[in-house]
Amino acid sequence: MAQTLLLVDDEEKVLEFMAPFLQQEGFHIRTARTGAEAIRIAREARPSLVVLDWMLPEKNGIEVCRELQQMGRMGIIMVTARTEETDKIIGLEVGADDYITKPFSLRELVARIRSVLRRVDEQEPEAQMLERGELTISEAHCQVWKRGKEVQLTPTEFKLLLTLAARPGIVYSRLQLLQMALEDDFLNDERTVDAHISRLRKKIEDDPAKPVYVQTAYGFGYRFGDKG
């Protein structure tokens, strides 16, 4: 069954540029031209991934991204003409899994889409449940609970948490996390890991400034607290 992609851009020409090519790649395509329309269609269609423009009428891409996070796990790729690094970090911090700057090639877009979808879809049928302190992590269902309440993580956040939690106390460099958890040649800036870690901490730590689970190994990278 074809996976559904939701393409969100206020320019009809951009949607006409992307949609036919992605349909030829085997995806089912829905489109939206405003932030409000994107939210409505996402609730209805439950897409596997949203390609989301930053600048939108009614609600901008950042606002839409935040609302999409409340609907459960779906991949999100921010598309924008903004090139500043701070804009990229903002996009990642609000839950985007990747970030692509206009102009871009359709082949690059497809590669990024497939990479994010792998992180959404990868599930091991016989994968174990990890119990780490007050966290329960289901590898098979890509779900996390804290004190019995489900924590909504993006696919990227889940992969980072699972990688670290599988071996408590082991320090991973940012480069190792890019290679092992993100598995994405495009996200080759090690600082993007920091943005994902920051957002993950806000979701699973009682006090993100004093993390118990995802700890910083200063000068090296990150580890999962062995007493978590």
Automatic annotation (TrEMBL):
Q: Could you state one GO cellular component term attached to this entry? A: cytosol
Which keywords does this chain's UniProt record carry? DNA-binding, Phosphoprotein, Transcription, Transcription regulation, Two-component regulatory system
Q: Where in the cell is it found?
A: Cytoplasm
Q: Which residues carry this modification: 4-aspartylphosphate?
A: 53
**The OmpR/PhoB-type domain, residue ranges:** 127-226
- Give start and end residues of each DNA-binding region: 127-226
* Residue span, Response regulatory domain: 4-117
Q: Which GO terms describe its biological process?
A: regulation of DNA-templated transcription
Which GO molecular function terms does the record list?
Answer: phosphorelay response regulator activity; transcription cis-regulatory region binding
Record has Phosphoprotein as a keyword: yes
**Protein name as it appears in the record:** DNA-binding response regulator
Natural source organism:
Xylanibacillus composti
